[in-house]
Amino acid sequence: MSNGANSAKPAVDMMAGMERQERILVIDFGSQVSHLICRRVREAGVYCELRSCLLKLEDVKNFNPNGIILSGGPHSVYDKDAPHLCKDIWGYIDEKKLPVFGICYGLQEMCHSLGGKVEAGVKREFGHADLLIREDVAVQSQNGAKKSKGRSPIFEGIDGHKVPVWMSHGDKVTQIPPGFASIAYTSNTEYAAIEDQVRHFYGVQYHPEVTHTPNGATMIKNFVLKVVGCKGEWNMHDFCQKQIDIIMNKLDSKYVVGAVSGGVDSSVAAALVHKAIGDRFRPFMVDTGLLRKDESTIVKERLESHIPGMKLKVLDASADFYKELAGVTEPEKKRKIIGRLFVEAFEKAVSEMGLPHENCLLLQGTLYPDVIESTSYKGPSSIIKTHHNVGGLPDRMKMEVIEPLRLLFKDEVRALGRELGLPVTSVMRHPFPGPGLGIRIIGEINKETADRLSHADDIYIEELRKTGHYDKIGQAFAVLLPTVRSVGVMGDHRTYENVCVLRAVTTTDFMTADWYDMPHDVLARISNRIINEVKGINRVCYDASNDTRPLPGAVILTFLLCLVWYAVLILMKHHEVGFVGLNDPIKIHVLACLTSYVFFPTCLALSLYYNETFFRKHLELPTEATTATWLLMVWISAAFMLLAATIFNATEPNSIGIVGMVFSILYAAVKFTTNVPECIGMMT
User: Fold this and answer.
1) Cβ-Cβ contacts under 8 Å for 347 (sequence gap 6 or more)
2) 596 and 518 in one domain?
3) Residue 4: which residues within 8 A CB-CB, separation 6 or more?
């Protein structure tokens, strides 16, 4: 069963029958953390969905929200290509008197659209800031008179006058629209939070959805419950029953087939559909030979015992997988072979069931993050990877799709599993990749290496459970290096066997991860067991690297290499030292120019290309700050080029070039000094 979003439109609308439910519409302007807004709203007990800022008025009407939240984004509202909410939607908001909450860019978009003013800030705010809440806010009543009141309802329940928040903006509101008042400020931003209490419009310049803003969840909850007036009654028990009713009513007499992997998503989806349609759900499991140890047997026994009446068919296709993968070492080629063979095994299983495709639906475990990735607004700086396991199946088999989990986040899927009566061992399992152990064996795959790795992995997970570390870890697994041999001694004999690498990470979103600080005694016990119990492994290593990489290594190395090279050239010039035939001044000059104009810019370009993804995805720095830093680096390299030409006096530097260079360096320096925290952070 696919865990990825699929282009095929689901045959069953999982929102049908939920129209009367309280709901919040989150409009996405391209922030990398927009999904966290949805998480916070749902944590407050209110259903919500994330939609692109390119949506039309009809989309808003069909969703029929009780309130709207505008997300952050990487743009400036006055940019030519900046996204904006269409005027028809603003008109509909006024007509229906819908409360609105703008976050960061959302605040600026609201002010820009309603008659306020947004400008580039002289000083950027990135990182922690102290928000000062106004305790006595001037409010303009409907008859135009001004009166004072206490703090804004957004800040109810938050102790203190000064609270920490997380800022990430370059532009700021310099003039608020008519009817608005400032309800909080920082040392740099007078309008850090604003409100129009008559129209119930609120906006904040910081990010309340991230954990770096400790009281942020309370602010969002206050908007949803106190301002919008939602009751906060959305819960997994009611959701579960509604989904079962929807599936029963919409499927009529149709069948559903689904490949169950034993993971959280497929197990919960299988339990939900089986509870709705009983034996018209036909689940099966493809044993590729690349699963965890005894996985197919364990999953079959566990699911059949906890989902009364469900029969899981296991198709053993391991021989086909081993045969096709023999001699293949290239990772991407292995992935493609595994994907193709899985599709073939899937088709065979469905064919053996004898079910007509026109009366049969395909179950897929698409989650809401997959839907967000395929439908949310993606600006020019957004780099989002879409995940597919068997995304080609519906088109190839001409089958309609049912995605009962497409409205849920991962933690909500786990809660649904508990509601359906699945055991903790099913709902709290660590993720396991679709290709299985195939991507954890570096080199050729065969039954021997697969059995070796599955045994080591089984020992690893078993010990983590015994010692209480399993539930503290986001994902743990073993990797086998068959192509790496290690010399060791076991007993009185010398061994020359494989290396096994253990990996454990903590993560909240499975987008970035930090290595888990495993106690040494636990590692020692795991290592000892693997070496003694798994034939063919005589060394165990622990991976202590993070998925977030330090940025400037390539840039710094390039500068150092160039400085060393210039030093060598200067020595050659002044001491007339020649080597490898380079005692000719012209040859030296040519080499210096090649170094300056080719080597240095190429290394710099490659390093920038490599690091740009990290800057955009993880730091969300303003476009101008990023550009200013890169510009400064490039013109420092230009200074090196002119320095080389001047040192060797082979050609006189062009005066126009010098003027252009000086002007650009001054421009970059000005930009740099107005963005010192961001720029220094990028280069250190």
Assistant:
1) 396, 397
2) no
3) 366, 370, 386, 387, 388, 389, 391
Residues with catalytic roles = 104, 207, 209
Task: Give 159-225 as a DSSP string.
Answer: -SSEEEEEEEEEEEEEEPPTT-EEEEE-SS-TTSEEEETTTTEEEESS-TTSTTSTTHHHHHHHIII
Q: Which of 229, 536, 275 is nearest to 404 (CA)?
A: 275
Mean pLDDT of 625-651: 51
* 273 and 407 housed in the same domain: yes
* Structural domain of 44: 23-227
Tokens coding 419: 């509601």
Residues 128 and 188 in one domain: yes
Q: What would the pLDDT profile of 558-605 be if each residue is shown by its tens digit?
A: 555 556 655 665 665 555 544 444 455 555 556 655 555 555 555 555
- Asked whether residue 4 is domain-assigned, the answer is no
pLDDT tens for each residue of 322-379: 999 999 988 888 988 998 898 888 888 888 888 877 788 989 888 887 777 665 555 4
Q: What is the mean pLDDT of residues 388-394?
A: 43
Euclidean distance between the first and the last CA atom of the chain, given in angstroms as a whole number: 44
User: Exposed, middle or buried: residue 354 (CB in 10 Å: 0-12, 13-18, 19+)?
Assistant: exposed
Work out how many domains the chain is built from and give that number.
4
